Amino acid sequence: MLARIPPRYAPAISLPPYSYVPGHDLPHPVNDPRGHLYTQAHQAPEPSISPSVLSTLPTEPTSRRHALAATLAADPEWRFALDLFNGGFYWEGRNSQISLAPARGTVVFAVFSRAQAGASMLC
To answer: What is the mean pLDDT of residues 76-97?
Structure first.
C-alpha cells in the first residue's frame, strides 16, 4: 500500500531535505553548520501577523475563535508549520510553531499545544 501524501498548505515553501530526529546520524538543523536550517536560524524572522492585528480580534469567545482561525489560515508561516507537522517533520514543525508564538500573543495556547504534540512524536 502506498503512503498517502498529505495536502500542502504552503506549497511555495520547500520542505526540508530530511526530518531531524535527536540521537540519529543526521546533523542538527540549527546548531550544526551542515544543518538544513543553520543559516535561517541565525536570522531574526519578521512576524507575519502583528500583535496589533491580534488585539483587534472580537472579545466574544466564539467570534474570537473564528476570527483567530481565519487570521491563522491567512498566515503563510502558520500554514508552513502545519505542512512540516503533517509531513512528519516533527522537530522542524515544533520549532517553527514555537518561534511563531511571541508574535501572536493570544495564539500561544494553540501554538504550544500543537508544538507539544510534535515533540511527543519524536519519542
So the answer is: 83
Amino acid found at 121: M
pLDDT of residue 37: 80
pLDDT of residue 30: 84
Secondary structure letter of residue 6 according to DSSP: P
Strand ranges, E, within 25-119: none
Name, in order, each residue with C-beta under 8 angstroms of 19's C-beta and a sequence gap of 6 or more.
87, 88, 89, 90, 91, 92
Q: Tell me how far apart the alpha carbons of residues 116 and 123 are, in angstroms, rounded to a whole number.
A: 11
16 contacts 92 by C-beta, under 8 angstroms: yes
Question: Looking at the whole model, is its pTM more than 0.85?
Answer: no
Q: Parse the chain into domains and list their residue ranges.
A: 60-121
Q: Which contiguous run of DSSP H or E holds residue 51?
A: helix 51-55
Q: What is the CA angle 79-102-54, rounded to 5? A: 70
